[in-house]
Amino acid sequence: MTEDKKRRAVVAALITRGEKFMITRRPDGKERAGLWEFVGGKAEEGESLQDALVRECREEIGVTVAVGEPYMTVEYDYPDINVRLTLFRATITEGEPLPMENNAIAWITADEIENYPFVPADKDILARLRKENKL
User: What topology does CATH give the domain 6-132?
Assistant: First the structure.
């Protein structure tokens, strides 16, 4: 990692309905636009990972979530940023997901992962979901 590259704590939510989990597509104008990912974002200075996830879910899809246990943590070195991504199990406690900051929301099964181009940082998470093939 170069000295001028930022290292960021990133959080994401594994929100499930039955055997499906929710993914969102990154909007135009952002890095990795058009790729799919789990809803979430960067933690702000002094913010806990759980609080960051609650805030990001409210901002990006308009729901309140209860944050559960971490599902997996991965580190990924993009050309512009180094991320430490923690994916938490989460449950929607209020609201219905709407694509407020994203181009789209989809509910998919582990068998459908290959139909969606995901951000590279999610590769190991998706492999685990495929291997388990259940949530």
Answer: Nucleoside Triphosphate Pyrophosphohydrolase (3.90.79)
